[in-house]
Every structure is written in C-alpha cells, then in structure tokens.
Amino acid sequence: RKEVEQDPGPFNVPEGATVAFNCTYSNSASQSFFWYRQDCRKEPKLLMSVYSSGNEDGRFTAQLNRASQYISLLIRDSKLSDSATYLCVVKASGGSYIPTFGRGTSLIVHP
Amino acid sequence: EAGVTQFPSHSVIEKGQTVTLRCDPISGHDNLYWYRRVMGKEIKFLLHFVKESKQDESGMPNNRFLAERTGGTYSTLKVQPAELEDSGVYFCASSPPSAGLFYEQYFGPGTRLTVT
Questions:
Q1: A17: which of A13, A48, B54, B115 fits an S-S bond (Cβ 3.0–4.6 Å)?
Q2: Residue A41: closest C-alpha in chain B
C-alpha cells in the first residue's frame, strides 16, 4: 500500500461546479498535512495547510479525518484557473521533516 | 524577493556522463531540499540541508549522487555516472530557519534531466 494515495483523475468539471478530492495516508503517526497545487511543467506551490479542526481559504476548504486517515480538499465555484494537479503532502512526527507526496489529482475545469 | 532558482532548466546527457545541477535558495533560508520526480511517479525526497550540513540524506538513491552546499548558500547535485533511470525532474526547495511543522517549502522550477 502506498504511503499517500490519491485518485489521479482527471476530474473534469464545468465552471462553477463544486469538486472534492480525497487523499489517504498509511502512517498513523503523520502530523502535518498539506495541499499543493502544481500547474503543468511548473513547480509545486503550497495551496493550504490542513489543520485538525479543518480550515477554509476562500473557495477552498480542507478537512482532516485522523480516524480514517484521510484529508480532503473541497473547491467551490470552480474557475478555469483552478485547472491543475493537486498534490497531497504528509509529514510524520519526529525530528525529520521528510514529506511524502501523493501522485496528485488532475483537475480540468471547462467552460 | 527572488524565488528559488535552478540551473539548468533542461539537461540532456548520455548514459555514463556527469551532470551537475545547481539550486539557489531564497536568501536567508537555511533549509534546502532536493526532490526528484520520475515520470509517472510521485515526487520523492532526496535530501535536506540545514545551512551547509546534511540533515537527512536518506532519500539519495545511491552513491552516484553527491550533493553539496558549501558555505550554506547555493547547493549542487552531481550525478556521476548518469544512468537511464536517473531521468526525471529534479526540484529544489527552501524554507526559513526555525521552521515548525506547518512550514511552507518554496519550490524552484526544477531541472528536467534526460539521460539517453
């Protein structure tokens, strides 16, 4: 079983739609969780950290479910510019800050 | 403020040759990381510098890879001799000192390495 698993997609949605991605992780000692966005042939950029209580940033909402070991990202009112690959990143506790990346979920928002 | 820069952006070399990748982190960022993404796979951690010291190099694939960060500023990653399976995109990232669990890593644009 992969340490961090994501549905590769692509998720093909119309503008204005609401779309949600999940990401499951296998290490129960994981402490830190992030969603990164990566545009085609570009570098990953932090979209948002995921806190235990869940957090929202504009149209984006991130949730953490420790019991089931998954995090989610909800995008409301999708824009064409949201088209990208969304990477789930998980870090375990301890002195090492090695992050584990998922392969990413591809989102295509069409007119 | 300048972001993380990497050089070259692309490199095509033959199997057995040597290639050196360079990363310039954001000024003042003590933490520097190297990652690699092989086609079709996830981004994988290679190693982590804190200033000039290697904090963790557990992700380095083998001894054909050598990373340095003399003076704690820019870093180089040398692959010698290169093999076909070394092809991929090599990302560098940096983060500020004393970063906590939720620190953000700033990624460079990557170097696309093709070994033929």
A1: A13
A2: B109
